[in-house]
Amino acid sequence: MITKPLFQSVLLDLLVEKYGSIAPKEDVTRDFAGMKVMLAEDNEMNMEISEDILTKAKLSVVKVVNGQEAVDAFLQSQPGEIQAILMDIQMPVMDGYEATKKIRESGREDAESIPIIALTANAFAEDVQRALDAGMNGHIAKPISKQALFTLLDKVL
Q1: Residue 17 phi/psi, 5° resolution?
Q2: Residue 63: what are its φ and ψ, rounded to 5°?
Q3: CB 89 within 8 A of CB 108
Q4: What order do you get walking across the sheet with 84-88 strand by strand?
Q5: Residues 73, 50: Cα–Cα separation, whole Å
Q6: Burial code of 95-127, b = ≥16 C-beta within 10 A, e = fewer?
Q7: Three-state secondary structure readout of 58-120
Q8: Would you say the pTM of this structure is higher than 0.85?
Q9: pLDDT tens digit string along 51-99?
Q10: Which of 109, 119, 6 is CA-nearest to residue 63?
Q11: SS3 at position 138
Q12: What's the rounded Cα separation, in Å, for the pair 38 and 60?
């Protein structure tokens, strides 16, 4: 029996208990030194995990907890100061879709070009398409895979 929410570590522990030890995967690392990203995430645990992944890749992280804060932080930053935005979709005050729309329509010189990546547990093809239709440049399913995140950041940065 596994309790919800289902965490990768719990599932791994169960599989190791049942089938024995498995070889650990090689840790995926990148070096994005000198770059700054905004992380818009309302869940404290997801924020901690994501920030840990990003800072280990030497990214500087601006943290916000809702879509309105993301819009405000973007508009208050200097153009080009933030290289990408990692945007949770389901947040209070303003969701990630609306925040992306407001950023894209802000008229700031980098508003249309800054990469905005959706972070969401919704990983169906229609969810990916909805993120793209909202003006986002990519989609990462939660829990976040370092490999997928770094591959997408390599592509958009």
Answers
A1: -60, -40
A2: -105, 135
A3: no
A4: 60-64, 36-40, 84-88, 116-120, 138-141
A5: 18
A6: bbbbbbbbbbeeeeebbeebbbbbbbeeeeeeb
A7: CCEEEEECCHHHHHHHHHHCCCCCCCEEEEECCCCCCCHHHHHHHHHCCCCCCCCCCCEEEEE
A8: no
A9: 999 999 999 999 999 999 999 999 999 999 999 999 999 999 999 999 9
A10: 119
A11: strand
A12: 8
Q: Are 61 and 41 in contact (CB under 8 A)?
A: no
The residue whose two tokens read 């089938």 is 19
Distance CA 121, CA 142 (A): 5
Residue 121 confidence (pLDDT) = 87
Instruction: Report pLDDT digits (tens) over 52-65.
Output: 999 999 999 999 99
Strand partners, 60: 36
At the topology level of CATH, where does 28-156 sit?
A: Rossmann fold (3.40.50)
Predicted local confidence at residue 70, as pLDDT: 98
Q: What tokens does 151 get? A: 């591959």
Q: What is the largest CA-CA distance in the chain?
A: 56
Q: Which two tokens stand for residue 52?
A: 């840990």
Q: Tokens 């080009």 map to which residue?
A: 80
